[in-house]
Write a structure and sequence with these properties.
It comes from Diabrotica balteata (Banded cucumber beetle). The protein is an alpha/beta fold. The chain has helices at 9-14, 20-33, 44-53, 58-74, 76-79, 87-95, 126-138, 160-163, 168-180, 196-206, 211-214, 246-272; strands at 96-100, 109-116, 148-154, 186-194, 217-221. It is 48% helix and 12% strand.
């Protein structure tokens, strides 16, 4: 099955981001070893995303491909049903602003920005929010695959009762995927406007995350300036950046979700052929 990417394999080879030898090696490995849950044939552009996520180390790439499809099989509540028009996903959009920020860091990292739109804990439904933030990785302007992805999450409005809505199992599955199965290098999460309740939530998360993954989660207290780490040209004006408002950027990202809807439907059908 072919997916529409805004880049092609030959361009990535010409730009020396990967090699024909690496791509062909992964294709041969798929055909000869037939790993469980993994499609026998994977489009070259998707193979390239896996290679880039592993710095073109082909052995690591094989492990990431296996983890990617295995984890999606084991967590359908997060990785299946990626329909932005579903009621629970629409509710997630009303609860959180989910933004793919234009521009990149100096390291060519994609910045994904989240902020609470509705701080009422009764409207905080964890699994659809996780699903929608995972979908956010896919809506990136994919004509230039990023060298990594980093989350920036504004925790203003996150309170005591939100902690009780956190469920360890979905968070464990989601973070495990970010650390080992996502076809882009996960560079971490920076929480801004951290508070006592977020600290308590992190204690819960720490219990089931590998140390190297937990160490990628950074909490910054109120008053921290995100431009210390991120270019002002890639930050919304609420954070002192040069971009439009969060609401305007969120509306633009919703349009990117709409463009990607057919991809999610096709990708799920494709994966389920090999379950």
């Amino acid at each position: 099955m072919e997916f529409n990417f805004k880049f092609n394999a030959e361009d990535m080879i010409l730009k020396k981001r990967t090699t024909r030898e690496n791509i062909d090696l992964i294709k041969d490995w798929l055909e000869t070893t037939k790993p469980k849950y993994v499609p026998l044939q994977i489009q070259e552009e998707l193979i390239i995303l896996f290679l880039l996520s592993c710095d073109n180390n082909t052995e690591r790439t094989k492990g990431t491909i296996i983890a990617h499809f295995k984890m999606k099989k084991e967590a359908p509540e997060i990785f299946d049903g990626r329909d932005m028009y579903r009621d629970d996903i629409q509710k997630a959009f009303k609860t959180y602003r989910m933004i793919s920020l234009p521009g990149r860091t100096a390291e060519n990292y994609q910045i994904l920005y989240l902020s609470l739109r509705d701080s009422d804990f009764r409207n905080f439904d964890l699994v659809p929010i996780l699903k929608a933030t995972y979908m956010l990785l896919d809506v990136e302007h994919d004509d230039n695959p990023p060298a990594g992805a980093i989350y920036l999450a504004d925790m203003k409005g996150f309170g005591f009762m939100h902690v009780f809505k956190l469920r360890p199992d979905p968070i464990r599955k989601y973070m495990h995927y970010l650390g080992e199965g996502v076809p882009v290098q996960f560079k971490g999460v920076h929480f801004i406007n951290g508070n006592y309740f977020l600290d308590k939530a992190m204690l819960l998360v720490k219990a089931f995350l590998k140390p190297e993954l937990f160490n990628l989660l950074k909490i910054h207290q109120k008053g921290w300036n995100p431009s210390e780490l991120f270019p002002k040209s890639s930050l919304p004006k609420e954070l002192g950046g040069d971009l439009e408002s969060e609401e305007e950027l969120c509306n633009k990202t919703i349009e990117l979700y709409k463009e990607k809807q057919t991809f999610w439907e096709k990708e799920e059908k494709w994966r389920h052929q090999y379950h």
